[in-house]
Write a structure and sequence with these properties.
By secondary structure, the protein is of the alpha+beta class. It has two domains: about 60 residues, no CATH class; about 130 residues, GTP Cyclohydrolase I, domain 2 (2-Layer Sandwich). It is about 45% helix and about 20% strand. A hairpin with a 5-residue loop joins strand 1 and strand 2. Bound molecules: zinc ion (ZN).
Length: about 210
């Protein structure tokens, strides 16, 4: 087995780890959510709100589906491969890719969009897979900085490109809904490989504007 095959199969292992919640656990969680929501002021005995604890749990589970991995990202990967790219610094930039994530400090959403770019090595990946890659790590409890780093590192592992650039811009509800209530936007970047080149970064950021 070549080194590349070993590396790809380890990526497969990282990407696929579906969660399983036992029914008895889920039932207990629903009771806990009902207790909290009720104590904080939500009347739970009306037709529209009776199932709110269940809906909240399901929504939270869906919003964290990144922990389940994305089999499509993995299984379709080999079919996306084409021949060598000869242009040395031709970049593929995809975006804006809308994403929603949950900040791990407050478990509240931060929402925004990503731009993901790479300069191919001998392989490329389907454009739609870049969107899947963003969502794989956004649908988790995370922080914006780590999200960008994970997207960059996984893209490096999947296609072994010459370089990767990631730019994320997001608004954090934990600062909008409480505390300072600032409608701020936070921008982060992550760079790998040939993106250490300032001109390449500049071109990426112009395309990402
Ligand atoms: Zn927060």
């Amino acid at each position: 087995m070549s080194e590349r095959v070993i590396e790809l199969s380890s990526a497969v292992a990282v990407l696929a780890s579906p969660r399983e919640i036992a029914l008895e656990d889920w039932t207990r969680f629903r009771g806990n959510v009902a207790e909290i929501l009720g104590a904080f002021g939500l009347p739970l005995d009306t037709p529209p709100t009776r199932d709110t604890p269940e809906r909240f749990l399901r929504a939270l589970f869906d919003a964290t589906a990144g922990y389940d991995g994305d089999p499509k990202l993995v299984t379709t990967f080999p079919t996306e491969v084409t021949g060598a790219v000869e242009e040395p610094f031709a970049q593929v930039v995809e975006g804006p890719i809308a994403f929603s994530a949950l900040c791990e400090h407050h478990a509240l959403p931060f929402v925004g969009h990503a731009h993901v770019g790479y300069v191919a090595g001998e392989r490329i990946i389907g454009i739609s897979k870049l969107t899947r890659l963003v969502r794989l790590y956004a649908r988790r409890f995370t922080v914006q900085e780590r999200l960008g780093e994970q997207i960059a590192d996984t893209l490096v592992r999947l296609v072994q490109p010459q370089g990767v650039g990631v730019r994320l811009e997001a608004s954090h509800l934990c600062t909008r809904m409480r505390g300072v209530e600032e409608p701020s936007r936070t921008t982060t970047t992550a760079w790998r490989g040939v993106y250490r080149d300032a001109a390449l970064r500049r071109e990426f950021l112009e395309l990402a504007r």
